[in-house]
# Entry
Amino acid sequence: MRLQNKKALITGGGSGIGRATALAMAAEGADVAVVDINLAAAQAVAKEVEALGVKALGIAGDVADEASVQAAVAEAASAFGTISVLFNNAGIIRRANVIDTTTAEWDQVMGVNVRGVFLMCKSVVPLMIANGGGSIINTGSGWGLKGGGDALSYCASKAAVVNMTRALAIDHGKDGVRVNSVNPGDTNTPMLREEARQLSQEEASFLTEANDRPLQRMGTPEEIAEAVVWLASDASSYVTGSALVVDGGGIA
# Structure
């Protein structure tokens, strides 16, 4: 029970890596607030979490909207007493180069992927400071550490997340708040299938291409979740400001 007595908030928790992490944290003893723009999905995952014997909330939240973020954090903190673990996982992707990326698409990707992390941290960090510390994990990407094709806004946003993580770690280490990023490679999630659609590629062949890495397969949401649980736990107590790559060797 590595997360016994921890109070976690997970954004983008209604599917994929967020859902897997909510279940993994619950299995380790944490109470979990599942925040998602899709309330029905958040509530469905919260029911799965509750079945593991911990407290859970399903909360509607748009991470790009400050009032929505403040309301979600307030609801979770009121129910749990505080928030000791924050997993900033909500994210979107738009597969296009600079010519084909519209200004609206750029703003949307930056709003969710970058502004969302900023707003959640702005609301949660004071709670963690008041409680003597906490752990924040931000979802970056292998493409936040190297470039990728036809994904300009996504690459830019995830690079921002990786370096924002480092800046947060520097600012709040003195407060006992650890901040790290987890950087997945291609993972078997709905978002990966959405990429195939955006690129007008046949899904099966697109997913086969995703296996092109040293371990010769995609990652699973559960494998990413295990890395997040470790960063959330006291087992990683001397780890902050790091960019943990979990990608089957994809950027090696």
The helical segments are 16-27, 39-50, 66-80, 103-130, 152-172, 190-198, 203-209, 221-232.
